[in-house]
């Protein structure tokens, strides 16, 4: 542990890695709450994969990979919506069709244009190679995401909880959906370096689900989820550095461990406490 | 003034007609029940009034104006099955949502709104449950919380979709009492209702629906065995009951 702290103080690359992954943990945790409450975990997975061709095309055109990522992310969201609304194909199937197509296209483009080691880094992240520009991009995305959630909190809350009422009083629920998809794309881009495309969905879904098991209030859930995201980032980076493990995967497994603890021991929703309670009430009635 | 005017409304789902040429008017200050058998298009009618589903044709005027201009003067209480009861939200925040339509973008509910929410909770006798998660309540309590949310919207028109399904007698009494109070204050309330036995007692006017409008107007004129038979068609056992009680 001391060794890790000393190294963080000593090495700038580790400081950047730590800062960036904490920021990613926080913003994934915040957006993840809305993703899971809207039942869009699969959509989160889809959008994160769909960023890949965007990154490749941006590289091809020599523009910032941000722009390409956002464009393909949104196109995927629109494509999924179009297929499920205009055919009998169900929503989860259309998600599966569209995002795998985008992902496959991305793999081909990247391997043609760059090398397979670049592909590997985009897919799985490489947090120790975070450049200052990556850190700044993550910070800006973080500010945009947290600012949006703060400013539009009531619209996000009502359209997630009761979309029919939201629509009835005139909120543009479709626009809110695509706005959220845009934020999701931004978050994915920010997460490329830390956990990589494949595992982003874990950072979106797992800390948020852990928080979901622990509270009955959305605002508290968002705070807890951000906290669990940050703890996973720090813990994961520490373990990955100390035992020389893949950083993205380690971060995800720390998040999973937190989830399992909550699943077993949550005061209200925990499986263990529930079992004990029901056993007690059974013996009382007997 | 008329609260709701519907002219030649037609709605279809994937080529199946759900509502055929429906015309009616509802004047302000009435408590109206929409009744009819399952699949008669009762909820569809409410959703069409709110433009939540596309209509094939028809003209709808609300509170003397188009829907767009009066959206915020309408409160809608969805069916219980449309709500995610595991959502991390407590009773008081649920009611507070009722104040959202009147708060401008980027602003947050303040003390005034929170006080209003609590006052509305008190009206439905649910103040003591304000810190409960909504899924921990009984069906009737949940319905009362959603009525409190509608009250917090402080609107002139209330649309409720099946508020009496699966709720306890006490809750039903509270809800009916409040709906009648609202009516006496000059508000208009439209309720989708399936239980014929209480229709006469609860409502001033009825819309009897089975894809087309069978009859509408004063309860006594609409609620006749003949009209009911027309709407409910072959459901004979029920008809016999009707004949015996009338």
Biggest sheet overview of chain A: none
For the record, give the distance between the C-alpha atoms at the N and C termini of chain A, rounded to a whole number.
52 Å
Q: Distance between the terminal alpha carbons of chain B, to the nearest Å?
A: 34 Å
Order of helices and strands of chain A: HHHHHHHHHHHHHH
The amount of beta strand of chain A, in percent, is under 5%
Unreliable stretches of chain A: none
> How would you state the average pLDDT of chain A, rounded?
90
CATH topology of chain A: ABC transporter involved in vitamin B12 uptake, BtuC
Most extensive chain interface and residues per partner: A-B, 24 and 27 residues
- The CATH architecture of chain A is Orthogonal Bundle
Description of the molecule:
The complex is a heterodimer of chains A (286) and B (246). Chain A has one domain: Orthogonal Bundle (ABC transporter involved in vitamin B12 uptake, BtuC), CATH 1.10.3470. Chain A has 14 helices and no strands. Chain A has helices spanning 2-10, 12-37, 41-61, 65-86, 91-113, 116-124, 132-151, 153-161, 163-168, 173-191, 196-212, 218-243, 247-265, 271-285. The chains are: A mainly alpha (286), B alpha/beta (246).
Brief account:
The complex is a heterodimer of chains A (286) and B (246). Chain A is mainly α and 286 residues long. Chain A contains 14 helices and no strands.
Annotation keywords:
heterodimer; A: 286 residues; mainly alpha; ABC transporter involved in vitamin B12 uptake, BtuC; B: 246 residues; alpha/beta; Rossmann fold; 6-stranded mixed β-sheet; 3-stranded antiparallel β-sheet; 10 helices; 25% strand; globular
């Amino acid at each position: 542990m001391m060794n890790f702290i000393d190294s963080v103080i000593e090495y700038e690359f580790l400081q950047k890695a730590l800062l960036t992954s904490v920021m990613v943990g926080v913003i994934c945790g915040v957006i993840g709450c809305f993703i899971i409450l809207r039942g869009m975990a699969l959509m989160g997975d889809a959008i994160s994969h769909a960023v890949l061709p965007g990154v490749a095309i941006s590289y091809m055109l020599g523009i910032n990979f941000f722009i390409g990522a956002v464009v393909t992310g949104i196109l995927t969201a629109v494509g999924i919506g179009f297929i499920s609304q205009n055919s009998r194909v169900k929503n989860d199937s259309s998600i599966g069709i569209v995002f795998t197509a985008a992902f496959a296209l991305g793999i081909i483009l990247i391997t043609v244009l760059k090398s397979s080691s670049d592909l590997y880094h985009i897919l799985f992240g490489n947090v120790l190679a975070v450049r200052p520009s990556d850190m700044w991009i993550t910070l800006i995305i973080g500010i945009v995401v947290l600012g949006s959630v703060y400013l539009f909190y009531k619209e996000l809350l009502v359209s997630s909880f009761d979309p029919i009422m939201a629509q009835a009083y005139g909120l543009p629920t479709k626009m809110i959906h695509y706005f959220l998809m845009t934020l999701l794309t931004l978050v994915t881009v920010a997460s490329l370096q830390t956990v990589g495309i494949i595992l982003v969905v874990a950072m979106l879904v797992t800390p948020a689900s852990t928080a979901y098991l622990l509270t009955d209030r959305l605002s508290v859930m968002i705070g807890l989820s951000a906290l669990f995201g940050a703890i996973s980032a720090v813990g994961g980076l520490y373990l990955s550095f100390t035992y020389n493990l893949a950083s993205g995967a380690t971060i995800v497994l720390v998040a999973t461990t937190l989830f399992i603890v909550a699943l077993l021991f949550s005061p209200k929703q925990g499986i263990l406490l529930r079992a004990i309670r029901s056993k007690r009430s059974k013996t009382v009635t007997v | 003034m008329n609260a709701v005017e519907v002219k030649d409304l037609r709605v279809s789902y994937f080529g199946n007609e759900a509502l055929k040429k429906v015309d009616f008017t509802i004047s302000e200050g009435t408590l109206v029940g929409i009744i009819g058998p399952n699949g008669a298009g009762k909820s569809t009618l409410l959703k069409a009034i709110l433009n939540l589903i596309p209509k094939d044709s028809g003209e709808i005027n609300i509170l003397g104006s188009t829907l767009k201009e009066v959206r915020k003067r309408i409160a809608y209480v969805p069916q219980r099955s449309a709500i995610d009861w595991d959502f991390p939200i407590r009773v008081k925040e649920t009611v507070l949502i009722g104040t959202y339509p009147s708060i401008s973008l980027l602003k947050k509910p303040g003390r005034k709104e929170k006080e209003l929410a609590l006052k509305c909770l008190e009206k439905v006798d649910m103040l003591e449950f304000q810190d409960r998660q909504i899924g921990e309540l009984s069906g009737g309590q949940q319905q009362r919380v959603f009525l409190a949310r509608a009250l917090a919207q402080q609107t002139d028109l209330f649309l409720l979709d099946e508020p009496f399904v699966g709720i306890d007698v006490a809750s039903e009494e509270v809800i009916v009492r409040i709906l009648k109070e609202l009516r006496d204050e000059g508000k208009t309330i439209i309720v989708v209702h399936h239980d014929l036995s209480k229709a006469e007692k609860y409502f001033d006017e009825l819309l009897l629906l089975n894809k087309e409008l069978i009859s509408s107007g004063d309860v006594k004129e609409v609620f006749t065995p003949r009209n009911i038979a027309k709407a409910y068609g072959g459901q004979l056992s029920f008809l016999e009951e009707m004949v015996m009680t009338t």
